[in-house]
Design a protein that fits this description.
Layout (H helix, E strand, L loop, with lengths): L2 E6 L3 H12 L5 E4 L12 E3 L1 H8 L3 H5 L11 E4 L2 E4 L10 E3 L2 H14 L3 E4 L2 E7 L4 E7 L2 E12 L6 H6 L5 E13 L14 E3 L3 E3 L5 E3 L2 E6 L7 E7 L10 H12 L16 E11 L4 E2 L2 E3 L5 E2 L6 H21 L8 H25 L3 H13 L3 H12 L24 E4 L2 E4 L10 E4 L5 H5 L8 E4 L11 E4 L5 E5 L6 H14 L30
Parallel strand pairs: 1-2, 1-10, 2-7, 10-19, 23-24
Antiparallel strand pairs: 3-6, 4-5, 8-9, 9-10, 11-16, 11-17, 12-13, 14-15, 15-16, 17-20, 18-19, 21-22, 23-25, 25-26
Helix pairs in contact: 1-4, 1-7, 2-7, 7-8
């Protein structure tokens, strides 16, 4: 056995799996076909719940370049180029982290290096065979072909995944062949920019808010002034004649003119690249029939692709976080029965939800008077707070609810834990500071500390933090978080009874460590810097 886990693909999703494993002490091998990191501009950032997830791993400030936690977008957003008034919501679930994909890859590669992950560049999977104990992986590298034996193989090798194809996993879906998408970094007249809102005011058309697509009867247009880069200008048109010529800035200018019915004098980008100048005809929405084939797993674009809404990377990074701790627990021998199977049962429905999101936006953005009439009706519905909440949750991925197997009826069970400020004996800490080790976490906010006492003998497996009652926030007095920050158990009782505590133990056995623990007088869970792990029964005030 040469590696516990081999990861095919050194993009953001593969690197995130590697980081999650390395946090637990597993040292995976990452195989990346490209000899050098790609600077090709692709995704322009992260959106939704994944922004809070990278904050939970201490990566938000490194990616954003700013101090402090992420803040939700609370004013406006769009769904299928229709405005979502997020001001109608009590709490917006939509977060944004503008960062080009090559920067996300760079930060994750740096973090993987800090954690001791081995990344082999210029190496790619060319064959695989599974048996009962391992996967034999044939690898092509700069010095020829060699063979690795690994207990598990993770395919994070993109939409054309070799891992998926060699495993014989079907990739059904649909292909859009009517659209042409053009994108380029370009300059716009400075006097057209609104310094207060960042909007682009186009004479003959009107105001265009940044980052949000605008549909017309002739296509769609978007203007994205990413920090530290020239604006990214994009258009989508339907039923354009095919061309084999190289994309040019003049071609994009002509496309903008057709879409908006107005001229926008685009200039070449200034500063250092890399710069985008590309045309993409058509696209796909596909979800793999299974995300696991025995010892082979798929994450990110290898498992699902979508064309609208930019949700692929957001979804893929959450695949990585979901899978990482489950593989680690299995390798340690502490995984409850069926834990690895839950990767497919949890993440494939999330991918199917993304496909619905992508196809719905494509349908509502198509040309035609019938679609325009539908959009007018849909816009009326967007004045309803409930509708806005549903679409905002869908956009953010906050509508995902995992089946925790009857381990509690609290409304937070199965959902991503909201942000909390925890008042401990050593000061106030954010929940995000307590989840950076990728370990399970029990938050005991009760006065008597009964949940902490109930799991005292599981402290080798679960970090336990006692804190004062929350004056604001979700109505919960104790929560058990899985390493991916989804709530496995919760209670709102100020003094949980015997049935509550038995349910807590059952959730711990179902998701974290099966069987009854052996009593130990040591091995308290790790804590964030500056925060002492609680002793059984201790309730800081």
């Amino acid at each position: 056995m040469t590696a516990d886990v081999v990861i095919a693909g050194g993009g953001p999703n593969g690197l995130m799996v590697a980081c999650e494993l390395a946090l637990t002490g597993v040292r995976p091998v990452v195989l990346e076909l490209l000899p050098e990191p790609s600077t090709e501009p692709r995704a322009n950032g992260l959106l939704g719940q994944v922004v809070r997830m990278v904050d939970r791993r201490g990566l938000y400030e490194r990616l954003s370049g700013s101090e402090g936690p992420p803040e939700p977008i609370s004013s406006y957003f769009m769904f299928a180029a229709m405005g979502l008034n997020l001001g109608l919501l009590e709490d917006s679930p939509i977060y944004a982290l503008p960062a080009p994909q090559h920067r996300i890859t760079q930060v994750l590669a740096e973090r993987a290096g800090e954690l001791g992950v081995e990344i082999r560049r210029g190496h790619g999977v060319v064959g695989l065979a599974q048996d009962d104990d391992a996967v034999t992986v044939d690898v092509a590298g700069p010095d020829g072909t060699y063979r690795l034996r690994t207990r598990y193989l993770v395919g994070a090798d993109g939409g054309h995944s070799v891992t998926r194809k060699l495993s014989g996993i079907a990739f059904p879906g649909i292909t859009f062949d009517r659209t042409t998408n053009r994108t380029a970094h370009a300059t716009v007249p400075a006097q057209w920019l609104d310094p207060a809102t960042g909007a682009l005011n186009v004479p003959g058309y009107g105001s265009i808010q940044p980052f949000l697509p605008h549909r017309t009867e002739h296509g769609a247009f978007s203007y994205a002034p990413l920090p530290g880069h020239p604006p990214l200008i994009s258009t989508t048109e339907w039923d354009q004649p095919a061309t084999q010529s190289a994309m040019s800035l003049e071609e994009l200018r002509s496309s903008v003119r057709r879409v908006l019915g107005a001229d926008v004098p685009l200039g070449p980008p200034a500063g250092d690249g890399p710069f985008v100048l590309r045309r993409l005809d058509g696209g796909n929405v596909r979800v793999a029939e299974q995300f696991r084939d025995r010892r082979v797993f798929l994450v990110g674009d290898a498992a699902h692709v979508g064309t609208t809404g930019g949700s692929g990377l957001n979804l893929g990074l959450q695949d990585a976080v979901n899978l990482g701790w489950k593989l680690a627990a299995t390798l340690r021998g502490s995984a409850p029965p069926g834990l690895l199977d839950s990767y497919d049962t949890e993440r494939r429905p999330a991918a199917a939800r993304m496909a619905t999101y992508s196809q719905a936006q494509a349908a509502l953005s198509a040309p035609g008077s019938d679609v325009t009439a539908l959009r007018e009706l849909f816009t009326e519905l967007l004045g309803d707070r409930t509708t806005v909440q549903r679409l905002a949750d869908l956009t953010a991925g906050a509508d995902i609810h995992y089946d925790m197997g009857g381990t509690g009826t609290h409304p937070l069970v199965g959902r991503f834990c909201p942000d909390l400020d925890l008042h401990t004996s050593t000061g106030t800490v954010r929940l995000a500071e307590m989840t950076r080790s990728a370990r399970p976490l029990l938050l005991d906010l009760t006065q008597d500390g009964y949940p902490a006492k109930a799991l005292a003998e599981w402290q080798d497996h679960v970090d336990i933090l006692t804190a004062g009652p929350q004056p604001t926030g979700p109505p919960a007095t104790a929560l058990l978080l899985r390493p991916d920050c989804y709530v496995a158990w919760a209670t709102a009782s100020p003094r949980p009874n015997a049935a509550d505590l038995e349910s807590l133990r059952a959730a711990t056995q179902q998701w974290i460590a099966p069987g009854e623990p052996e009593a130990r007088s040591h091995g308290a869970g790790q804590a964030a810097p500056g925060v002492e792990p609680s002793s059984p029964g201790t309730t800081p005030v």
